[in-house]
Design a protein that fits this description.
The chain is of the alpha/beta class. The protein has helices at about 10-15, 30-40, 70-75, 95-105, 115-165, 175-185, 210-220, 255-330, 335-380; strands at about 25-30, 45-50, 60, 85-90, 110, 190-195, 200-205, 225-230, 235, 240-245. A five-stranded parallel beta sheet has the order 2-1-3-4-5, with helices on both faces. The protein has a five-stranded antiparallel beta sheet with strand order 7-6-10-9-8, sandwiched between helices. Strand 3, helix 3 (about 70-75) and strand 4 form a beta-alpha-beta unit. The longest helix is centred in the C-terminal third of the chain and has 77 residues, at about 255-330. The chain is rod-shaped. About 20% of the residues are buried.
């Protein structure tokens, strides 16, 4: 920043040939100098107004005012780049004076002494230049903000893709919920969520503070629609999951819309992974039931086979005992040799057929048991 001595020969020519609109400034000066500057500047198209006036274009500070720093600090100051420019009148051009003006927020300065006419022209020029610079800074600020928002959005979309990748590696509801809540925290959001499965709802929260009212709200909001807004709070409902956000950025409409889109992306991935996990659990439970049933049937067949073997053994023993008894009693029946032989043949044939029937039933039981064993092994795989 540099001061410019305005005692130039062409200054008057510029002031007479260039028409400029009245300049509205706020003056900070001592009592003895304020009237001088007020009268002199107003004669040359400069109007003095209050610093809080919406049409105030510049703040003029006379460094000879003993409390100019306190008066300057008490003025309302807008953030860059909308703030009102500050112009200083310095008594000396040495470096400490310039640095003192700069440290008080000066955007430009001029050396004293200077006439009100030359100062009016200088102020108009400075205001015009500062206004152009302010407009340029505003454009640069907006461009930087747009670029920053674009980079932020790209980073957040990348985080969402990472969430999708990590989410499908989760194997239980607790790990999936922890990943979801941690991702929402990275976006500056605090939330709780519920997972609805065959046994009811599993409730999860991100700050180790269980809020029963949030659990009840999630359970009772299933019929409110996909998205329900309650001021800063938003509820997203899906068939198998629900998310409650406690601190939506409602004060920033653009950020609010972006965040809501991000939450929907995350909720879609969460719903897909939750449904897949529920189907996996159902398949595992179905396989366990089938394996249990097959094991019970296999045990029943083994018990039936053992019972049949016992019956066959007892029947064979009884049949053999009956044949031995008949052999002993044949001599008392007064049968001829041929009749006795025919009777023994019939009894032997009957015994063989009974034994063959028992063996066939046992073989069928063994085949059925082997089939059930194969089914059980297949289910285990």
């Amino acid at each position: 920043m540099s001061g410019i001595d305005l005692w130039d020969d062409d200054l008057g020519a510029d002031s007479t040939t260039v028409e400029v609109p009245p300049l509205h400034i706020h003056l900070i000066a001592s009592t003895e100098h304020e009237a001088f500057w007020r009268n002199g500047l107003e004669e040359h198209g400069v109007c003095l107004v209050d610093a809080a006036a919406p049409h105030c274009q510049l703040i003029l500070v006379d460094e000879r005012c003993p409390n100019f720093e306190q008066r300057l600090a008490s003025l309302p100051r807008l953030p860059e780049p909308e703030r009102t420019p500050v112009f200083f009148l310095v008594t000396d051009g040495t470096e400490p004076d310039c640095m003192r003006a700069f440290s008080c927020g000066a955007d430009d300065y001029v050396h004293l002494p200077i006439s009100p006419e030359a100062l009016a022209v200088r102020l108009k020029r400075a205001e015009h230049q500062l206004r152009d610079n302010s407009a340029m800074r505003l454009q640069l600020s907006q461009s930087s903000q747009i670029a920053f928002q674009s980079m932020t959005m790209n980073a957040e979309l990348g985080r969402i893709l990472q969430y999708m990748e990590y989410g499908f590696a989760c194997e239980d509801f607790a790990s999936l919920a922890a990943l979801t809540l941690r991702t929402l925290n990275e976006f500056g959001l605090h939330a709780s969520m519920g997972v609805f499965h065959d046994r009811g709802m599993a409730f999860f929260f991100d700050d180790n503070l269980r809020r029963p009212i949030e659990q009840e709200v999630l359970e009772n909001s299933r019929l409110l629609g996909r998205i329900s807004d309650f001021g800063m709070r938003t509820i997203l409902n899906y068939p198998h999951v629900a998310i409650l956000i406690r601190n939506m950025p409602v004060e920033d409409p653009m950020r609010y819309g972006i965040i809501k889109d991000h939450i929907c992306y995350i909720a879609n991935g969460l719903e897909a992974r939750t449904l897949a996990m529920i189907n996996e659990l159902r398949s595992q439970e179905r396989a366990i039931r089938i394996q249990t049933t097959a094991s019970v049937l296999q045990q029943m067949i083994a018990e039936m086979e053992q019972a049949k073997l016992e019956v066959t053994k007892r029947s064979t023993e009884e049949l053999q005992a009956m044949l031995d008894t008949l052999n002993l009693e044949f001599s008392q029946l007064c049968l001829t040799g041929n009749e006795e032989q025919r009777l023994m043949t019939l009894l032997a044939d009957s015994s063989d057929r009974i034994h063959a029937l028992f063996r066939s039933a046992a073989e069928q039981d063994q085949l059925f048991q082997h089939l059930l064993s194969s089914v059980a092994q297949t289910l285990e795989r």
